[in-house]
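Design job #97: recover the sequence.
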């Protein structure tokens, strides 16, 4: 007889990246620094795009949405880990674990879809430049982002419902710093065959599908660039894709590395350490990749910082001389 979930007493122990007490202050400081850099960097991208009318284009609209998702994505895991280190408690409730897993999947899949939408945007810009403004109109851009969120929500709802049907007999140790889907399935004491089948199918569909679309878009972009007669024209076309291509490579490269590491060592801290690459490092690097290689973003950031710096003295002056 299959035992049902006992959510009133079920708790999970997040073992984190290391169980060595001496390393906890170092891990806390490192992850706090990376989290603050991630939030600040992505927030500056959002503020720069929203405050500069020159950046009110589909490309930067998608970029600001990507930055918002990256902030949310990192915020689902790092604050809880920092809180556990600070309070010296590794416990997370059953409800908290399911909630964390739900939002982690939601933002991870949305990140994937938005990267795919950005690849389509670059495809239209390079392969159909004369019809770009007609094709990538505000209505379509908003619809693409909305569909990305809806599909991600439906996907993570399915995965969460599949986990809810599992039985967890006792207080269990998770060799990770957050409630990751594969770890939850492995710790169940009921039959997990259906869960594993759904996970494999959905990963192939929701992960492989967008990746194929990105590859197809860039294959068309490369074919179109070959027809550009001048080297300068080819460089300009490539420069519009370089930042996005770097982010895509970083996202998929680290994600693939994590799942390969997880498959090889299912119950060790190595998979948790590898997951830091795409859960923390990638969202932190995205603003730097886009700002360092993009003159428009750097100009908008300078104007935004200058504008906020000017407002202070003006306000003070008005208060001093009413």
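Job complete. Output follows.
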């Amino acid at each position: 007889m299959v035992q049902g979930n006992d959510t009133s007493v079920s708790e999970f122990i997040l073992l984190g990246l290391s169980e060595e007490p001496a390393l906890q202050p170092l891990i806390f400081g490192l992850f706090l620094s990376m989290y603050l850099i991630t939030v600040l960097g992505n927030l500056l991208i959002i503020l720069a795009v929203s405050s500069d009318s020159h950046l009110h284009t589909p490309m930067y609209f998608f970029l600001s949405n990507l930055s918002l998702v990256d902030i949310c994505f990192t915020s689902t895991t790092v604050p809880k880990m920092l809180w556990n280190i600070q309070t010296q408690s590794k416990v997370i409730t059953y409800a908290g674990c399911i909630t964390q897993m739900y939002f982690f999947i939601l933002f991870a899949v949305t990140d994937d879809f938005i990267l795919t939408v950005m690849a389509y945007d670059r495809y239209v810009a390079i392969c159909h430049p004369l019809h770009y403004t007609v094709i990538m109109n505000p209505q379509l851009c908003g619809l693409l982002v909305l569909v990305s969120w809806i599909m991600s929500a439906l996907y993570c709802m399915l995965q969460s419902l599949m986990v809810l049907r599992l039985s967890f007999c006792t207080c269990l140790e998770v060799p990770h710093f957050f409630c990751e889907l594969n770890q939850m399935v492995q710790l169940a004491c009921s039959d997990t065959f259906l869960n594993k089948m759904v996970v494999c199918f959905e990963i192939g569909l929701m992960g492989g599908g967008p990746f194929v679309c990105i590859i197809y878009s860039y294959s068309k972009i490369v074919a179109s660039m070959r027809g550009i007669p001048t080297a300068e024209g080819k460089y300009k076309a490539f420069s519009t894709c370089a930042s996005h291509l770097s982010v895509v490579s970083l996202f998929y490269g680290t994600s693939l590395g994590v799942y390969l590491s997880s498959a090889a060592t299912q119950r060790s801290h190595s998979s948790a350490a590898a997951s830091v690459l795409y859960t923390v490092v990638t969202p932190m690097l995205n603003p730097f990749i886009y700002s360092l290689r993009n003159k428009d973003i750097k100009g908008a950031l300078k104007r935004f910082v200058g504008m906020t710096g000017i407002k202070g003295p003006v306000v003070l002056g008005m208060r001093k001389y009413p």
